[in-house]
Protein backbone atom coordinates (compact mmCIF):
# COMPACT_ATOMS: atom_id res chain seq x y z
CA UNK A 1 0.00 0.00 0.00
CA UNK A 2 2.86 2.39 0.73
CA UNK A 3 4.51 1.72 -2.63
CA UNK A 4 1.20 2.05 -4.51
CA UNK A 5 2.15 -1.02 -6.57
CA UNK A 6 1.15 -4.70 -6.32
CA UNK A 7 4.70 -5.62 -5.30
CA UNK A 8 7.76 -3.63 -4.25
CA UNK A 9 10.22 -4.46 -7.05
CA UNK A 10 13.19 -3.38 -4.94
CA UNK A 11 12.77 -6.39 -2.63
CA UNK A 12 14.62 -8.47 -5.24
CA UNK A 13 17.25 -5.82 -6.02
CA UNK A 14 20.80 -5.74 -4.77
CA UNK A 15 21.44 -3.04 -2.11
CA UNK A 16 23.94 -1.32 -4.44
CA UNK A 17 21.21 -0.89 -7.10
CA UNK A 18 18.84 0.46 -4.46
CA UNK A 19 21.50 2.93 -3.29
CA UNK A 20 22.17 4.09 -6.87
CA UNK A 21 18.44 4.62 -7.44
CA UNK A 22 18.20 6.54 -4.15
CA UNK A 23 21.12 8.74 -5.25
CA UNK A 24 19.17 9.37 -8.47
CA UNK A 25 16.25 10.46 -6.21
CA UNK A 26 13.78 7.88 -7.51
CA UNK A 27 10.59 7.92 -5.46
CA UNK A 28 10.20 4.11 -5.58
CA UNK A 29 13.65 3.62 -4.05
CA UNK A 30 12.80 6.08 -1.26
CA UNK A 31 9.53 4.24 -0.58
CA UNK A 32 11.38 0.93 -0.38
CA UNK A 33 14.01 2.29 2.02
CA UNK A 34 11.48 4.06 4.27
CA UNK A 35 8.69 1.50 4.38
CA UNK A 36 10.14 -1.92 3.53
CA UNK A 37 13.53 -1.91 5.24
CA UNK A 38 14.51 -1.72 8.86
CA UNK A 39 17.27 0.89 8.56
CA UNK A 40 17.92 2.39 11.96
CA UNK A 41 20.96 4.59 11.31
CA UNK A 42 19.22 7.94 10.94
CA UNK A 43 20.45 9.26 14.31
CA UNK A 44 24.07 8.25 13.70
CA UNK A 45 23.93 9.55 10.13
CA UNK A 46 22.55 12.88 11.38
CA UNK A 47 25.38 13.26 13.93
CA UNK A 48 28.01 12.30 11.36
CA UNK A 49 26.62 14.82 8.84
CA UNK A 50 26.69 17.52 11.52
CA UNK A 51 30.31 16.64 12.30
CA UNK A 52 31.18 16.98 8.59
CA UNK A 53 29.44 20.36 8.43
CA UNK A 54 31.13 21.55 11.64
CA UNK A 55 34.53 20.44 10.36
CA UNK A 56 34.03 22.35 7.09
CA UNK A 57 33.07 25.52 8.96
CA UNK A 58 35.94 25.09 11.42
CA UNK A 59 38.37 24.63 8.53
CA UNK A 60 37.11 27.79 6.84
CA UNK A 61 37.44 29.62 10.15
CA UNK A 62 41.07 28.48 10.47
CA UNK A 63 41.80 29.50 6.86
CA UNK A 64 40.48 32.97 7.55
CA UNK A 65 42.92 33.45 10.44
CA UNK A 66 45.92 33.13 8.03
CA UNK A 67 48.29 32.13 10.85
CA UNK A 68 51.04 29.71 9.81
CA UNK A 69 52.86 29.32 13.12
CA UNK A 70 53.62 25.58 13.69
CA UNK A 71 52.75 25.96 17.37
CA UNK A 72 49.17 26.66 16.28
CA UNK A 73 48.69 22.98 15.42
CA UNK A 74 48.74 22.23 19.13
CA UNK A 75 46.44 25.16 19.82
CA UNK A 76 43.98 23.97 17.14
CA UNK A 77 43.75 20.58 18.82
CA UNK A 78 42.63 22.29 22.01
CA UNK A 79 40.30 24.83 20.44
CA UNK A 80 36.64 24.92 21.23
CA UNK A 81 35.78 26.54 17.90
CA UNK A 82 35.01 23.15 16.40
CA UNK A 83 32.46 22.42 19.13
CA UNK A 84 30.97 25.87 18.70
CA UNK A 85 30.60 25.22 14.96
CA UNK A 86 28.99 21.86 15.75
CA UNK A 87 26.48 23.60 18.02
CA UNK A 88 25.70 26.26 15.43
CA UNK A 89 25.28 23.62 12.68
CA UNK A 90 22.96 21.66 15.00
CA UNK A 91 20.81 24.72 15.72
CA UNK A 92 20.61 25.61 12.03
CA UNK A 93 19.64 22.06 11.02
CA UNK A 94 17.07 21.91 13.83
CA UNK A 95 15.53 25.23 12.74
CA UNK A 96 15.41 23.95 9.14
CA UNK A 97 13.53 20.82 10.26
CA UNK A 98 11.21 22.84 12.53
CA UNK A 99 10.39 25.14 9.60
CA UNK A 100 9.48 22.13 7.47
CA UNK A 101 7.30 20.58 10.19
CA UNK A 102 5.49 23.86 10.95
CA UNK A 103 4.76 24.47 7.26
CA UNK A 104 3.48 20.95 6.63
CA UNK A 105 1.41 20.94 9.81
CA UNK A 106 -0.08 24.33 8.90
CA UNK A 107 -0.83 23.41 5.26
CA UNK A 108 -1.95 19.80 5.83
CA UNK A 109 -2.68 19.15 9.52
CA UNK A 110 -4.36 15.81 8.69
CA UNK A 111 -1.04 14.44 7.42
CA UNK A 112 0.74 14.78 10.77
CA UNK A 113 -1.94 13.68 13.23
CA UNK A 114 0.01 11.13 15.26
CA UNK A 115 3.44 10.92 16.82
CA UNK A 116 4.35 8.08 14.43
CA UNK A 117 3.69 10.40 11.45
CA UNK A 118 6.15 12.94 12.88
CA UNK A 119 8.72 10.25 13.65
CA UNK A 120 8.49 8.75 10.15
CA UNK A 121 8.88 12.15 8.50
CA UNK A 122 11.81 13.05 10.77
CA UNK A 123 13.49 9.72 9.98
CA UNK A 124 12.93 10.32 6.24
CA UNK A 125 14.41 13.84 6.42
CA UNK A 126 17.45 12.69 8.39
CA UNK A 127 18.12 9.77 6.04
CA UNK A 128 17.69 11.98 2.98
CA UNK A 129 20.42 14.31 4.24
CA UNK A 130 23.05 11.67 3.41
CA UNK A 131 24.33 13.94 0.63
CA UNK A 132 26.13 16.01 3.25
CA UNK A 133 28.68 13.19 3.45
CA UNK A 134 29.96 14.43 0.09
CA UNK A 135 31.52 17.30 2.05
CA UNK A 136 34.33 14.90 3.01
CA UNK A 137 35.70 14.34 -0.52
CA UNK A 138 35.07 18.01 -1.36
CA UNK A 139 37.33 19.01 1.54
CA UNK A 140 39.94 16.30 0.93
CA UNK A 141 40.32 17.10 -2.77
CA UNK A 142 40.23 20.85 -2.26
CA UNK A 143 40.57 22.87 -5.47
CA UNK A 144 39.36 26.10 -7.03
CA UNK A 145 35.86 24.70 -7.59
CA UNK A 146 35.24 23.67 -3.96
CA UNK A 147 32.64 26.44 -3.31
CA UNK A 148 30.75 25.32 -6.43
CA UNK A 149 30.91 21.69 -5.26
CA UNK A 150 29.53 22.69 -1.86
CA UNK A 151 26.67 24.56 -3.55
CA UNK A 152 25.85 21.46 -5.62
CA UNK A 153 25.92 19.34 -2.46
CA UNK A 154 23.42 21.71 -0.81
CA UNK A 155 21.09 21.54 -3.84
CA UNK A 156 21.36 17.72 -3.91
CA UNK A 157 20.45 17.49 -0.20
CA UNK A 158 17.43 19.76 -0.72
CA UNK A 159 16.24 17.64 -3.67
CA UNK A 160 16.62 14.51 -1.54
CA UNK A 161 14.69 16.16 1.31
CA UNK A 162 11.91 17.07 -1.11
CA UNK A 163 11.64 13.48 -2.35
CA UNK A 164 11.60 12.18 1.22
CA UNK A 165 8.71 14.50 2.18
CA UNK A 166 6.84 13.64 -1.02
CA UNK A 167 7.17 9.90 -0.51
CA UNK A 168 6.48 9.89 3.23
CA UNK A 169 3.32 11.99 3.08
CA UNK A 170 2.25 11.02 -0.46
CA UNK A 171 2.16 14.63 -1.67
CA UNK A 172 2.55 16.37 -5.01
CA UNK A 173 5.85 18.12 -5.86
CA UNK A 174 4.82 21.65 -4.88
CA UNK A 175 4.09 21.33 -1.16
CA UNK A 176 7.44 19.69 -0.21
CA UNK A 177 9.33 22.51 -1.96
CA UNK A 178 7.21 25.09 -0.16
CA UNK A 179 8.01 23.42 3.19
CA UNK A 180 11.73 23.36 2.31
CA UNK A 181 11.58 27.04 1.34
CA UNK A 182 10.13 27.99 4.74
CA UNK A 183 12.67 25.72 6.42
CA UNK A 184 15.46 27.59 4.64
CA UNK A 185 13.96 30.94 5.69
CA UNK A 186 13.95 29.85 9.34
CA UNK A 187 17.50 28.46 9.04
CA UNK A 188 18.76 31.70 7.47
CA UNK A 189 16.99 33.62 10.23
CA UNK A 190 19.04 31.69 12.79
CA UNK A 191 22.24 32.40 10.79
CA UNK A 192 21.36 36.11 10.71
CA UNK A 193 20.72 36.07 14.46
CA UNK A 194 24.14 34.51 15.11
CA UNK A 195 25.81 37.08 12.88
CA UNK A 196 24.06 39.91 14.72
CA UNK A 197 25.40 38.48 17.97
CA UNK A 198 28.89 38.72 16.47
CA UNK A 199 29.52 34.98 16.07
CA UNK A 200 31.40 33.61 13.06
CA UNK A 201 29.04 31.30 11.18
From TrEMBL:
GO terms for biological process: intracellular sterol transport; regulation of plasma membrane sterol distribution; sphingolipid metabolic process; sterol metabolic process. Its main location: endoplasmic reticulum. One of its GO terms (cellular component) is endoplasmic reticulum membrane. Pfam families: Arv1 (PF04161). It is found in: Endoplasmic reticulum membrane. It is a multi-pass membrane protein. InterPro entries: Arv1 (IPR007290). This is Protein ARV. It comes from Chloroceryle aenea. The gene is Arv1.
Amino acid sequence: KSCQKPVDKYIEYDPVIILINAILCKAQAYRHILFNTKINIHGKLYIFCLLCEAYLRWLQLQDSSQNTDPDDLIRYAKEWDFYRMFGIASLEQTSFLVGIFITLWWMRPEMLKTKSDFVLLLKALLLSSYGKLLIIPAVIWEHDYTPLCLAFIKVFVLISNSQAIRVTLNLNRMLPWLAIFFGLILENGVVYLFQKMGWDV
